[in-house]
Amino acid sequence: MGRQRPDTEAITESIDSGVAELVPDLGGRNSWTLRVNGTPQSHVDLDDPTYLEFEYVRRLGHIVDLTAPSRVLHLGGGALTLARYVADLLPRASQQVAEIDAGLIAFVRRELPPPPRVKITTGDARAVLVKARPGSFDLIVSDCFAGARTPAHLTSVEYVRQASAALVEDGIYAANIGDGNGLQFARAQCATVRAVFEHVCVLAEPGVFRGRRFGNFVILASHTGLPMQQLTRATAGDPFPGRVEHGTGLTKFIGGAPVTTDETAILSPAPPSGLWGT
């Protein structure tokens, strides 16, 4: 059943990639924040899995709400926030989670057991995609971080093509990335995804779009179309309202940034020191 009420102290565990910490919500909710090497990775409310604390997860939740996927692949596990959300709203959906850190998986399984119909495997995201049968998933969510940075080999056009191959014809690819001043990485990632998918949009808070501060960008893509009007309304209605760029707005945002390949791929930018109080 997992933890039934919040404790007052954090739970710390050594994992493959360093140190994981589950910090309880002191506001009275039965919820926990997972931090890995000091970086917040996930927030989970055990009493209400549909409560999404982090804004970028809310953006991902919007596409779940609007498309009701029945087969979901999560590349990157964390504390399984989005998988719990899907399981609560769509209990018949089958889900697979791929997480490279076996120690983190064991820690989360023990302290915050996952819901039913969520298969968790240890492995690199690209290795999992290589093994996936074509047309296996309705939604693929790429939310992979080594510390606070996206690994280089998960940023290339070859990686996006592998994800595309694993989707059904009208499936959706979603990626969460971080960027800040200059936004060269975010622009290049949008260009890279658009090199594979015809329909692409990117969601972020206005200040993040303007490069005024480091933050999350959620990129959504499909071969057949995206629910743009509904996405725009939902994102604008978030507690921290966001903006959606697509079409000519997305082209302007990309601004001629090159497509990233396996040969040119680099780690995503590191967030500013002290961004999360560490």
From TrEMBL:
<dbReference type="Pfam" id="PF01564">
    <property type="entry name" value="Spermine_synth"/>
</dbReference>
<feature type="domain" description="PABS">
    <location>
        <begin position="1"/>
        <end position="234"/>
    </location>
</feature>
<dbReference type="InterPro" id="IPR030374">
    <property type="entry name" value="PABS"/>
</dbReference>
<keyword id="KW-0620">Polyamine biosynthesis</keyword>
<feature type="active site" description="Proton acceptor">
    <location>
        <position position="143"/>
    </location>
</feature>
<protein>
    <submittedName>
        <fullName>Fused MFS/spermidine synthase</fullName>
    </submittedName>
</protein>
<comment type="similarity">
    <text>Belongs to the spermidine/spermine synthase family.</text>
</comment>
<dbReference type="InterPro" id="IPR029063">
    <property type="entry name" value="SAM-dependent_MTases_sf"/>
</dbReference>
<keyword id="KW-0808">Transferase</keyword>
